[in-house]
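ok posting inputs for the C2G job
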Amino acid sequence: MKVSVIVPVFNTEDYVKDCIKSIQDQSHYDIEIIVVDDGSVDKSMVYVKELADEDPRIKIVELPEQSGVGYARNVGIEYASGTYLYFVDSDDVIHHHAIKTLIDHIDEDDVIISGSISTIRSLDEMDQFVQNEVPKIKVRKTSSIYTSRTVQKVLYSRTFVEDHNIRFLENTKMYSDYAFVYDVISLQPYTKYTRDSRYFRRKRNDLIQNPNIEETSYYEKCLNYFEMYLTLEPRYRENDAMKYRLDVDLMNFYRKTFLNYMREQDDFDQVFRRLSEVFNLLSHRVYKKQNPLVKREIKAIQELNQYRFVKLIRSHHLLSDLKRSISKRTNLKKFIYNRFFQRMSVKSDYIVFESFMGKGYSCNPKAIYEYMYKHHPDYRYIWVNNGNHLSIPGNPKQVKRYSLAYYYYMARSKYWVFNTRLPKHVKKRDEIVYLQTWHGTPLKRLGLDIEEVQMPGTDTGRYKKNFTQESSRWDYLISPNQYSSEIFTRAFDFDNQLMEYGYPRNDILYQANQSYIDQIKQKAGIPVDKKVVLYAPTWRDNQFIEKGKYSFELPLDLDHFREELSDEYVLVLRLHYLVANQLDLTGYQDFAYDLSAFDDIAELYLISDILVTDYSSVFFDYANLKRPILFYTYDLEDYKGKIRGLYFDIETEVPSPLLMTSEEVIDAIQNIEDINERYQAKYDEFYKRFCSWEDGKAAENVVKTVFGKEA
Ligand code: C2G
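and the output
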């Protein structure tokens, strides 16, 4: 029994091979694969042709120009010669038995039979779906098979499709399936269904280059939907059941999509006019079912009264936001932020600072603040903390992250100085100047340069989209060296003002003297007469406890360390700020010190004699001191391969040997003079490349540029 599988293709070069192969590999062999090229301009069709050369079951139909998926599928139907039709999108794949399972269970008098759709991120995920040896077949209402109103996963009798002339819409890009699906629902009220015929829809990662229907603009969606409605409504006007379905779907679309569009848009004349046309066709039966608020909205739309509609919507949104905000405290704060604080005037002398999400008084924001409060005490300074009071000179106002006071100052302060990204919900007003300092010369791939994001609570597409939405809000960004400038502009897609001054947080490395260093040692509680080894590793994306919290196991043999080194050295352990676990140093009190909670790592650089690190950007900063750096890269293979790509070749470009065991680290510390000598030339070169912009005046230069003040 031949099955014609119809695959419309438009620019899916990354996916189409997997798609076609999954069809070729079907356990039901008697198929023809009709690939309709809808004007692809990438390599998609090159790949398809390669496969077609080897497999006569693949037939290619080329459309002279891009005509939309509905038209492409209709052309596919014209070419089909099988007893059955099946539709696959060129970025999706189907399970090996998908078609056989349906063929085995469709009877002569059935005109369709349905399988199921699952969404996957990568092909590996297919294995987690277990197929029953003997598929379970159920009978369901056809309308419930098509809740998403798309044609995939179903096998159709071609005679049925031809006899009733069931076709896709050709005048709308996005909702062309509706015509096909509505016809099937109206002709065939019940359908056999089995979960065991699996169609896999791929969740696309790259929202920026390659948006799929979920990411196209609301504007497009609205116009397309209304077009579809206006085409199909006359067809079903006399068919009560179908007219009812059409109108219920319309109201769902109105609620889920149109109202969201409204929130984002001020100018919606064209869409509004179209909607008015559509709502004038709405049946009384569906109108009657709406709540009084929506009824009023419908009336205003029918009368084309945009002014009244906007007024109604504003008050209805206010009501629904209020309802939502009362149900959750954080929502209430956001509500107050958006509705009240954002309407108050902006104070041109207020500046909010935050470092590492409120965890400390540190990094570039600290350096900029120290310079500013000394030279410009006339500003009102606000620091964000995470609930623990920070010890900050000048005693600025402190607010807890996400508290009501935080939102108040975020809304009213003209300047924001942050070193990590801000969440999307903290909206930035146009008058605000956002200085993003960032927090290190990049070593690990960043933003758009990351291929696969493994962090919890997000996926690659969402991460990248959020990232660029955030970076487009930065008015200024600081770059510590030429190498960073190149990466930042690309990975953040940044095109506002880049300040190439070196890092303010490194100014102190050029200014501190011995008595200052002794003071820090005392503050940190470590002996003044011992040398210090600082161990400051980074975090690992894949060792997480929950969103935003990571774990870390100390890969050092502390007993051995103490035995070999404690006469001369103490060991300062400094975990990354994203690592949540505490180190247990019981028994090592006079030798090992956990200074993970110590505010500013720059001060720890100053008191240390040797740095041991891994893939952390700390070594770029530390190199300013020209002191020895050791790389303890025990999980290099894993890190390079699985965890995150690196920007530069750590194996050849760092000015020091890579050490793989705790013993090798001890040995290197004991022979540090030799290493210094051997690597001197490489270190100098490294310094030139990454530290040569630093002159101890970065903060001053940043302040002059952003705040326009001379010192
Ligand atoms: N840091 C620290 N203690 C550590 C590691 C890092 O205080 N044990 C601080 C340093 O200021 C460092 C910054 O956090 O420069 C960033 O740390 P990385 O280990 O480089 O990692 P990440 O936070 O992923 O930032 O452009 C820089 C990249 O974004 C990396």
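notes: The first strand starts at residue 3 and ends at 9. Residues 363, 438-440, 442, 444, 446, 536-538, 574-577, 601, 616-618 surround C2G (CB under 6 Å).
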